[in-house]
UniProtKB/TrEMBL annotation:
SUPFAM superfamilies noted in UniProt: Carbonic anhydrase (SSF51069)
Name of the protein in question: Carbonic anhydrase
Sections of the chain in a coiled coil: none
Keywords associated with the record: Signal
Organism field: Pseudocercospora fuligena
Alpha-carbonic anhydrase domain residues: 56-303
Secretion signal, residue range per the UniProt entry: 1-19
Alphabetized GO MF terms: carbonate dehydratase activity; zinc ion binding
Gene3D superfamilies registered for this protein in UniProt: Alpha carbonic anhydrase (3.10.200.10)
UniProt keyword annotation of Transferase present: no
InterPro entries reported for this sequence: Alpha_CA_prokaryot-like, CA_dom, CA_dom_sf, Carbonic_anhydrase_a-class
């Protein structure tokens, strides 16, 4: 039932921010190399696309070696604010940097199953060109965005896309939910600037999530058909976690190469619950895509 692809104007940036790999083969860790080789050989004997084939120059099971694969990916190993991190509930929820959401209820964009799972990308007419044209007030009125305080000044960051990871990249007290949803926002120069993160898990007694229920359905990871001109309401996800009033925040990075830093991360404490059928649907169109957590360094958590 899920998501979309990047638009041409920001294709390079959007591809960099997204992250996901073989959930189907090993849900809470990297699938072994011999399994990957075995699957690759089997797919060569069929006419099916190979979900493990590396088309980006990296895989998640190489995460500790990303810096050796490209000279521009040094941050992945020597960065001081790398994401994701292991969150501890004793830190308490943040009282700083609270985001204000300016999301219209009828955003239009495209949805498909990208390399690692579902993704939605905003219609280009409402994103890249709008960010670069007109006054700051006009941009805030026309383009879905969040406002937050950082480094003593108020900032606006503009929504571009969302995608999921399976399992979740962030953990809380060692608990790793089955999935994580990222709302990705860019600054006025089309650089990734902020991510709103939602931890997703199933609950036997959960009602269907209206946010996920409204999305197009895809059969499996091989169903890569793009569904254009769909309308979604980001506010519904915010509503399903109590208005995003409880969150952790820190200075972090992209969770995929080139691992650039300078990202303001928000991770909701409250779980976005789905029912069992919705979780199965999500995992059916996902592959493992969780980078290992990074040690806390200069992340300034909740500061």
């Amino acid at each position: 039932m899920f998501f979309a692809q990047s638009i041409a104007a920001l294709a390079a940036s959007a591809a960099v921010v997204s992250a996901c790999a073989p959930e189907l083969y090993k849900r809470d860790g990297h699938h072994p190399a011999h399994v990957k080789r075995h699957l690759a050989r089997n797919f060569k004997r069929t006419n099916l696309p190979n979900p493990i084939e590396d088309t980006r120059g990296w895989t998640f099971d190489q995460s500790e070696e990303w810096n050796t694969l490209n000279q521009d990916w040094g941050y992945c190993f020597n960065g001081t604010q790398q994401s994701p991190i292991a969150i501890t509930s004793s830190w308490g929820i943040s009282k700083n940097h609270k985001p204000t959401f300016h999301y219209p209820s009828n955003l239009t964009g495209s949805f498909n199953i990208w390399d690692f799972g579902p993704q939605f990308t905003l219609d280009g007419r409402l994103s890249h060109h709008s960010m670069q044209a007109g006054s700051s007030h006009r941009r805030r009125m026309e383009v879905p965005n969040i406002e937050f305080e950082d480094n003593g000044k108020n900032e606006s960051a503009y929504f571009k896309s969302w995608h999921t990871h399976a399992p979740a990249e962030h953990t809380i007290d060692g608990y790793r939910p089955k999935a994580e949803l990222h709302f990705v926002h860019y600054d006025e120069n089309a650089n990734p600037r902020a991510v709103i993160g939602f931890l997703i898990d199933r609950h036997a007694d959960a009602e269907p999530s209206p946010f996920f229920e409204a999305l197009p359905k895809h059969a499996n990871i091989f169903d890569n058909q793009t569904v254009s001109d769909i309308e979604i309401d980001l506010n519904q996800a915010i509503k399903e976690v109590g208005g995003y009033s409880n969150f952790f925040t820190y200075k972090g990075s992209l969770t995929t190469p080139p691992c650039y830093e300078g990202i303001r991360w928000f991770v909701g404490r409250d779980i976005l619950y789905v029912n069992d059928a919705q979780m199965q649907d999500l995992l059916s169109v996902s592959t493992f895509s969780a980078r290992p957590v990074n040690p806390i360094w200069l992340h300034a958590v909740n500061e």
